[in-house]
């Protein structure tokens, strides 16, 4: 049932990005100086004031003890008509991020627009 729900959410997000605000994740990285996840996104809309957040799935611990997590990028204005092109860099503080160290995959519903990176253990 959980995979079915994820599939429906993915399909909805994929179609909503085609019909309204088209997005493309350009880059994602971990900034150790600020303990933040930094991602750059290109998007289309009528205004540059879109904000982007990440909806995280549950952290998974694999049989070898390694942890992984997936986050999907959400647009604050997904129904904005895709008239103009914009780029924006967003930063997510990881101070309270409990899935560490971990392999983090972040992106859009489509696997073509995802990036995978490593988030280290919490700095001391």
How would you describe this structure to a colleague?
The chain is mainly beta and 124 residues long. It has a single domain (2-119), classed as Immunoglobulin-like, CATH 2.60.40. It is 15% helix and 46% strand. It is built from 1 helix and 8 strands, in the order H-E-E-E-E-E-E-E-E. The chain has one helix spanning 2-19; strands at residues 23-31, 36-45, 52-56, 60-61, 67-75, 84-93, 102-107, 114-119. The strands form 2 sheets. Strands 3, 4, 5, 7 and 8 form a 5-stranded mixed beta sheet that branches. The protein has a 3-stranded antiparallel beta sheet with strand order 1-2-6, with no helix packed on it. Strand 7 (102-107) and strand 8 (114-119) form a beta hairpin. The radius of gyration is 15 Å and the shape is elongated. It starts with a helix and ends in a 5-residue tail after the last strand.
Describe the largest sheet.
5 strands, mixed
**Gross morphology:** elongated
The number of helices is: 1
Oligomer state equals single chain
What Rg do the Cα atoms give?
15 Å
Output the keywords:
124 residues, 3-stranded antiparallel beta sheet, 1 helix, 8 strands, 15% helix, elongated, 5-stranded mixed beta sheet, 46% strand, mainly beta, Immunoglobulin-like
Brief sketch in words of this structure:
The chain is mostly beta strands and 124 residues long. It has one helix and eight strands; from the N terminus they run αββββββββ. Strand 7 and strand 8 (114-119) form a beta hairpin.
